[in-house]
Design a protein that fits this description.
This protein is mainly α. It has seven helices and two strands.
Length: 209
């Protein structure tokens, strides 16, 4: 019994390392997007907090350091919990929809090896959480999948931050606070879409070798 806790801790640590630091993979095996997108979200966490803090301070006019602490806490929760949760829900939906296609006798998500660009884009969007196999070393499907995943991540981030920030004594009524948090998240996720997409694109050269 004394070894149960160390064994459990070692198992959790091993799983976390395997998830966040995956070996290089080939595109013909399908790619789970969490190990690729999650490090980008973590790296950009500080500028995201800065963007939201600057915007919210201008709108709310409250103490800077209180706002920094609360915004950092809210973003840490939404990054550590919200983004993986959004990804997991997406995987479950993808598997469910794919299973329905298979049950109907159709291919769930056909490979992206097609000359039809719109078909490629459609398959990437549908299989964004766990990207469907595609031929070659193209990086744009991975970047597009990242951008698609930012949509549910935005909503989970908004609700996490609203849950944290609404308990603080801000000098504004509830609706105005919710609106300010919504717009702050729009700004920060626009930043994530641009700089996160660029960071991911140039960081994928080693992954698709």
């Amino acid at each position: 019994m004394k070894l149960a806790r160390p064994r459990l801790s070692a198992t959790v640590a091993w799983l976390a390392a395997a998830l966040l630091l995956p070996p290089a993979a080939h595109a013909d095996a399908g790619i789970p997007m969490l190990p690729l997108a999650y490090p980008v979200m973590i790296v950009l966490l500080i500028p995201v907090v800065a963007i939201e803090t600057i915007y919210l301070r201008r709108k709310l006019g409250v103490d800077r350091w209180l706002l920094v602490r609360r915004t950092a806490l809210a973003n840490a929760l939404s990054t550590l919990l919200g983004f993986p949760l959004a990804w997991l829900i997406g995987v479950v939906l993808e598997i469910t929809v794919g299973g329905l296609f298979v049950a109907l006798g159709a291919s769930a998500f056909p490979p992206i090896a097609t000359d039809n660009l719109l078909g490629k884009v459609a398959v990437v969007i549908l299989s964004a959480p766990w990207l469907s196999p595609f031929g070659g070393n193209d990086r744009w499907p991975l970047v597009l999948a990242f951008l698609v995943l930012l949509v549910p991540a935005f909503f989970t981030s908004f609700y996490f931050e609203w849950f944290v920030l609404r308990w603080s004594p801000w000098p504004v009524e509830s609706h105005a606070l919710r609106q300010a948090i919504w717009r702050a998240n729009l700004l920060s996720y626009l930043f994530l879409a641009v700089f996160g997409g660029v960071t991911l694109y140039f960081g994928l050269a080693w992954y698709l070798r």
